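Researcher: Next entry: tRNA pseudouridine synthase A (Chitinophaga hostae).
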Amino acid sequence: MNRYFIEVGYKGAQYSGFQVQENAHTVQAEIDRALSTLFRETIVSTGSSRTDAGVNAAQNFLHFDTALPLHPQFIYKINAILPEDVVLKGIYQVPADANSRFAALGRSYEYTLYTHKDPFMKDRGYFFPYKLDIAALQETAEIIKEYSDFTTFSKRNTQVKTYICKIEESFWTVDGERIVYNVTANRFLRGMVRGLVGTMLRVGRGKLSMDQFRKAVESRDCTNADFAVPPQGLFLMKVRYPEGLLQPVRFGRQ
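Model: Predicted structure:
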């Protein structure tokens, strides 16, 4: 058996999330269907990162095993089978024990706000036409890096054993009418990025003081976080692996 990692991107608007669910339309189910169709055998993949309903990904990974040879036009063929809102970007041969989820060293997300009505941003951002204190947003983003326990920003009904995350980057950028939160960590909890964004926006709107924000983080109580920001503004941007792990499969001309 050979193990392969595949790199994908997708728009999440039409899906009930990434991970396969019974009686639900998911990104992973479409990918497994495409792989199984091409290989003419059942392929069950394992995803690196779960995203919620409506959340997008510029980059996500899955792995699967097969003893069958890859079609010389593998990428072209899979993309022809996949729906138009899911794309296969690459395929990599990896060691047999490599796991797309557990081998990941870190993940990066962006959450995008746009401040003026724009029909082209409707499914790629959160329309937020309110005055924001950008300096306050930046201060809260810096405060986040001081903490490691993010129980406050994890939705309930999760099965994780620890709420400890190492935040590597946390900052806001402003580009014209787009305001973007950028965050990188070794791992994320269920709903964590949207909880961080929603709670920071309360500070940026003057509805929560900096001291109250700190107390919310330290409370380890999810009722003190605001998870109400919509999913379409959230993008999984990058999944980082150890250098040298991903060896692209070389094909002839696609």
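Model: Note for the record: The CA atoms of residues 193 and 254 lie 37 Å apart.
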